[in-house]
Write a structure and sequence with these properties.
The chain is an alpha/beta fold. It has three domains: 114 residues, Nucleotidyltransferase, domain 5; 94 residues; 125 residues, no CATH class. 54% of the residues lie in helices and 14% in strands. It is built from 14 helices and eight strands. It has a six-stranded mixed beta sheet. The longest helix has 34 residues.
Amino acid sequence: MTIVGGLDLHRSQITFDLLDVESGEVTTGKVHRPDRVRWRRWLNELDGDDVELVVEGCTGWRFVVEEIQRAGFTARVAEPAETQAARGNKRRAKTDRTDARLLRQLAVEDRLPDSWIPPQVILEWRERIRNYRTLLDQRTAWTQRLHAELYHHGVAVPEAHVAGDQTRAWLGCESVELSPAARERIELAYRMIDVTNAELVPLAARIRGFGRRHPATRALAEAHYGIGPLVAVAVWAELGDCRRFAKADAAVRHAGLDITVHASAGHRHSGRLARQGPSVLRWALYEAAHHASRATSPDHDYYCGVRARIDAKRATLSVARKLARRSYHTLRSLNDEELFADIDI
């Protein structure tokens, strides 16, 4: 018996819509309070020789897909934006049941916009590099709060020196005019920065160690100026198997670095970054592109030309798009053993 089904995920329940292709019978229902145990039990109760289940690429898809594959069934992940576009104009309220039914119908009609399901090694390092970015953002946020508090009380500290031990000791002196509440907030900001660094520094060292040893990340770092071991891990984890992209520009679109165009009635508005892809990938490519401002960079002349014509930010974005295309070709040239090597760190 062949079964095709769509799944709509929520933390409180998984709504399913199953079609028996041979008989045309449709079965709907919900798995309440889903976790691995309950989901595994429900999968074991499915009666079918050939089962294909489709889930949208949203939070929670990983354990659902892993258990589907463990049960010996076929799992497919739908790209969220393209799935909603395939819905068309809504004629009635959107519900969990209609979402599950849409996924099932798209799969049956062979119109499902598939997303790539990465292997475990990429999923694990993707989690780690995203943790690193989260910690980095938290440290930046506390540093900005520290700057704002100092400026609010008329204390001038150079931006590059605010995190230094000398500045920290100077702010603790009574000669600096700060209110008691301001001192408390400044001390809190420094403590939070210390706590974040305690997690951030060893994680960064671990990611760099992996980046120096893994064949794919090492190939990226060796081939492209500006991409170091840590940034290489971010690019590899977020781009993954580039053979799923038809051309290099698709990698740029995946990163959200492409320019959107809005035109109506003969009027064309200025384009903006799409920002539709992984934010960590955009951050990594942008950080790598900053090195183009150096005289030793092979993209230095191009960077200077765009900067002179527009500005430095646009120049950096242009180089970031170039790096996305080059990374696409580098990763695409690797075989599965090099691309998905699982190295213990």
